[in-house]
Amino acid sequence: MMPIESLSQLDLLIRMMVLGQLLLLGGLVLREPASRLRLLLLACGLSVAGLVMLTAPIPDEQYGLLRNVLLILTDAFAFIFWLLICHLFEDDFNPGKWPTPVKWLLGLFGLVYLYALGIQAGGSILHDLIHAISLGLVLHAAYIAWRGFKADLLDTRRRARVMVVLGITLYSTILVIFEFADERYRNAAVFGLFNATFLLLITTIAVARTFRLQYEPGKPAAEIAATERQEIARPQPGDSQPTLVRHQSEWSPADARLSKALDSFIAECGYHQHGLTISGLASQLNCPEHRLRRLINQTRGYRNFNSMLNDLRVADARERLVDPAYDDKPILSIALDLGYDSIGPFNRAFKAKTEQTPSEFRGDIQNRR
Hints:
This protein is mainly alpha-helical. The protein has helices at 4-30, 36-54, 66-75, 77-89, 100-119, 125-147, 155-178, 183-186, 189-215, 221-232, 253-267, 278-285, 289-300, 305-322, 331-337, 343-354, 358-368. It folds into 2 domains: 4-228; 253-368, Arc Repressor Mutant, subunit A (Orthogonal Bundle), CATH 1.10.10.
């Protein structure tokens, strides 16, 4: 077996390589215009860099005050990771619309977080509480990725969801659990080397992927960017109809037939079916599921099947709530007629589209008559 000193030296070498990869990734991200996604990626990179340095085979006393800073960066990973997963997989995710009390509570938690790690250096029960919250956030991120898998219309995002559930989430959970283990196991040289090696693998894959997207041979960067925009295009808030990404002249005969069948299905209000899924619709239209996913995304502009259903159903709901003939019909009955299984999902979908509940919308209409 390799001596502990040799393991430590190899561990340090690998960690230096990881830091180099992170610097390279940071440079690639900073080349593009700022966005919420790029800021989250940079924050993730800083957090991982803190983890790489903090868990290196170096005595804690040699860090000095730097250890507190690294501790803050390291333990922030679960929070940043959760925000990143929400941003990537939840199309309606918008922290700016969170209620004011929630924002105040988060601000208070931020102060406690800085105090527990920056002042107390993790030497109190507050640190254990932060670890428990971190574990909950990581597991919830896995749930978010799993929950939206079936309805996701983007193949790249579907693969990313699987990677999150099976890879990153499992690894992050193991790290958090290790924080509760005995120090002799948590600081074992073999575990540290494994940790560094795994991070090197992940960062190498990330760098290779980034370079391939930006500098793929035979495919100009502008064309790659256009392809990515086409794939992830979606309706903007306030749009009455989703954006058509591909013109009809670009459709294949099979896509044209499928689009016509989908139009007929929508015209007949087939989307009022209860429990309708993308796989169920593909069966009814007698087409491969992957083809239907791609067609809805590229010709209707949706990234999520449930978003399309909600838009269609809410549009019908608004027509019925405006119609005096439906004044005496309970809102629950309208929701059930439109394909919802309960009032809760209907209320959330309606408010997300109109910024009013169905009851508020109906009341405003009736007051204007």
